[in-house]
Specification:
With 349 residues, the protein is of the alpha/beta class. It has two domains: 186 residues, Periplasmic binding protein-like II (D-Maltodextrin-Binding Protein, domain 2); 134 residues, 3-Layer(aba) Sandwich (D-Maltodextrin-Binding Protein, domain 2). The strands form two sheets. Strands 5, 6, 7, 8, 9, 10 and 11 form a seven-stranded mixed β-sheet that branches. The protein has a five-stranded mixed β-sheet with strand order 2-1-3-12-4. α7 runs parallel beside α8 and α10 packs across α14. It is globular.
């Protein structure tokens, strides 16, 4: 039998008092209303991304800021598989808001059926209640076409007959890469592999694949190691290929991956990127809360950036509603988001 001494009981009592005091402070500071003010509690779920990834970290930071500065709001980030799952969660109200890349939102809203696996991935999604409230303060996903010197590749057309990684099966990266290869008429001639970034790096070094064509943030850690260990090169997506993709897919944006992004990368490379949106379920969050969310996120972007400064970018109000995005999906902006941007003089009429 364990003997409980008076000293032990006193210690337990002290620890209990401290814990209760801390919990009481947190409740008072962030959740409980001030004297004379009645504030109902509202709980919201932010669909982020894979554990440890940029999307989850950014979503968690934005949730913390929302809970800290908006009385009555309790927001938590959820670990998810990424863009496609996030859209499904938000569209059904299982998540209140989240990050989704533009191409999936575009097809969920307009259901054109023109974009192969992108269209198939969201064919059953009803986007009627999904509205955009801003371009996310995180890097877009850049399409990266990486190979090794001596493979004889200068453009996407040179992937014919090659073994090419396009990312894990079912990932946004794989869906987009397959669509691009199909649009160029070479999908059937490519030996597609489905690998993580880390596995693709090892496969390139071992000669088991010839190239990797993936969408990801910059820099991607696995490819930083690849460029350090081998004569890796990044191939441009430019000229006629770029023009064809941009014309066919209004949700792609032309982008540049700067020299020095990876070790020994000596020149800028043109490519395309997939912008990331913050979307909400209009039935899950009221308009006033949406307005307050945008307000506190912009007022406290320094706290959000501190979580991951290399990929969570500076985020001005103007950055959140660029003209090209307003024009592309004008009817899909939440009215309270429009009101916020107009109040800041940032909305493009």
């Amino acid at each position: 039998m364990v003997k409980v001494t008076r000293k032990t009981l006193v210690s337990i009592s002290v620890v209990t008092i401290i814990v209760v005091a801390l919990l009481s402070y947190v409740m008072w500071q962030y959740i409980m209303p001030r004297p004379g003010v009645t504030v109902p509690l509202h709980m919201y779920t932010f669909a982020g991304g894979p554990s440890g990834g940029t999307w989850y970290l950014a979503g968690a930071a934005m949730s913390t800021v929302a809970s800290k500065y908006i009385p009555g709001v309790i927001m938590s980030a959820e670990i998810t598989a990424g863009s496609i799952e996030n859209l499904k969660l938000v569209s059904t109200g299982k998540a209140s808001l989240g990050f989704v890349t533009l191409e999936f939102c575009y097809e969920a809203w307009f259901h054109t059926g023109k974009y192969g696996d992108i269209s198939s991935a969201v064919a059953a999604v009803k986007g009627d209640d999904v509205y955009v409230i801003g371009l996310a303060p995180i890097q877009p996903l850049y399409l990266q076409f990486i190979t090794l010197e001596g493979k004889g590749m200068k453009s996407l057309y040179d992937l014919r007959g090659k073994r090419v990684n396009i990312g894990p099966a079912g990932s946004a990266s794989a869906v987009v890469a397959k669509m691009l290869l199909s649009m160029l008429g070479i999908l059937g001639d490519v030996k597609v592999e489905y690998m993580s970034h880390e596995a693709a790096k090892d496969a390139l070094l071992d000669g088991r694949i010839d190239a990797t064509l993936v969408a990801g943030g910059l820099p991607t850690v696995a490819y930083t190691e690849l460029f350090s260990r081998a004569p890796a090169i990044m191939i441009e997506i430019s000229g006629d290929i770029l023009a064809k993709l941009m014309q066919a897919c209004p949700f792609f944006k032309e982008a540049t991956i700067k020299a020095g992004t990876y070790p020994n990368m000596k020149y800028d490379v043109k490519t395309i990127c997939l912008p990331t949106l913050i979307v909400v379920n209009a039935k899950a969050i009221d308009g006033e809360t949406i307005y307050k969310l945008l307000e506190v996120w912009h007022d406290h972007i320094d706290e959000i950036q501190a979580v991951h400064p290399t990929v969570i970018r500076p985020w001005s109000v103007k950055d959140s509603c660029p003209r090209w995005l307003v024009d592309l999906i004008r009817e899909r902006w939440h009215p309270k988001a429009v009101e916020f941007y107009k109040s800041k003089g940032a909305w493009s009429a």
